[in-house]
Specification:
alpha/beta, 320 residues, 16% strand, Rossmann fold, 12 helices, 2 domains, globular, binds ligand FEC, four-stranded parallel beta sheet
């Protein structure tokens, strides 16, 4: 029996491996422009607040990829072998390194997937473009999963998390209906909207599906972690939303950062430190849902989409 060896390129944002790599990492995010000493010190301080020896995103991505590979091989059948390799956007192994690693493994075909459920030309589109370019250079046929923002297992995993945290609010003495639920995701430059980018719409769809499934009536969407650049970013920012909620008499806020799938700086610092501090000053009890990390429902979402892509015809080539 011949075994079909399928490469899976699992793409993720990437994070430094040690404090002395922060500058190179930040320079890469800034398209090769080195940060000023003040900007570097500010980012380093944020990492110092969340990094306990290891950078959480690296650990989480490693675990997600290992467990995904195991899951794919457990259910894929005897005639298929899946080989997963990482490709990171801003750190080693970079996206082209991941494609090359698969090529060296001798796989005859590959599927690329990003550890971010919502498609934007600026985010997932960028990963895909880099991977496709390298795969074409090597002559490796590759197909891509572009999004999975409405997959039932993803929605269930997020719904369970919203419900669990709402229960905690109730145990702490709040009425369930008095808890304002926010859904949040990484902001992007507002110019993506004029370009017809699907990112905001896909995020709203995820939020709506989860709110309906969790029977949450009072919810809204907020952006977070906008870049420190002079261009306008999508808003409202969660840090602007909290004071407005306080003014309106809200005392309990639950945020579901539905655009992220791991514990990392944007969750552990921007939400757990910055938002918690802002909320405390406003007299609001703030909590966020647990990250998906290696939840089998999340990894099952990835597996389903990869299997779907494997079954589909070879990608004809457009970026979307
Ligand atoms: O834990 C970690 O080490 C990494 C956390 C992290 C994640 C993440 C995800 C996304 N980003 C997205 C877009 C942008 C754009 C810019 C930008 C800038 C930064 C900076 C840091 C950073 N991002 Fe990020 N992002 C993470 C970390 N991001 C650090 C630089 C300092 C700062 O501004 O805070 C602006 C770049 C520019 O200057 O041109 C745009 C998007 C995601 C979610 C999708 C994905 O994971 O790919 C979109 C995690």
């Amino acid at each position: 029996m011949s075994v079909r060896r399928i490469g899976v390129l699992v793409m993720s944002y990437g994070t430094p491996e040690s404090m002395d790599q922060i500058e190179a990492y930040y320079t890469h995010i800034r398209h090769g422009r080195a940060p000023s000493p003040e900007q570097l010190a500010e980012l380093t301080a944020r990492y110092e607040a969340v990094v306990g020896g290891v950078f959480p995103l690296r650990e989480n991505t490693n675990r997600q990829v290992e467990q995904l590979e195991r899951m794919l091989n457990e259910t894929g059948g005897e005639d298929v072998e899946f080989i997963c390799r990482q490709g990171l956007k801003h750190a080693y192994p970079f996206v082209p390194d991941g494609v090359e690693a698969l090529f060296r493994e001798g796989v005859s075909e590959a599927v690329g997937i990003v550890l971010a459920p919502h498609y934007s030309r600026m985010s997932v589109g960028g990963y895909i473009l880099e991977a496709r370019t390298k795969a074409e250079e090597l002559g490796l046929p590759i197909r891509f999963v572009e999004s999975y923002y409405d997959h039932p297992s993803l929605i269930l995993a997020l719904t369970e998390r919203v419900q669990a945290k709402l229960d905690e609010f109730v145990q702490a003495g709040y009425a369930r209906e008095d808890v304002k639920v926010l859904f949040s995701a990484h902001s992007l430059p507002a110019s993506i909207v004029e370009a017809g980018d699907p990112y905001p719409q896909q995020l709203l769809e995820t939020a709506k599906l989860v709110a309906d499934a969790a029977d949450v009536k009072d919810w809204s969407f907020a952006w977070q972690s906008a870049g420190r650049t002079p261009v306008p970013w999508l808003g409202p920012d969660i840090l602007e939303v909290l004071p407005k909620l306080a003014e309106a008499g809200v005392r309990a806020v639950l945020d579901c950062p539905a655009g992220f799938v791991s514990d990392h700086l944007e969750v552990l610092y921007d939400l757990d430190i910055e938002c918690v501090r802002a909320a405390e000053q406003l007299g609001i009890r703030f909590a966020r849902t647990e990250s998906l990390n290696t939840d089998p429902l999340y990894l099952g979402t990835l597996r389903d989409k990869i299997e779907e892509a494997v079954a589909a015809k070879a990608d004809a080539g457009s970026g979307r």
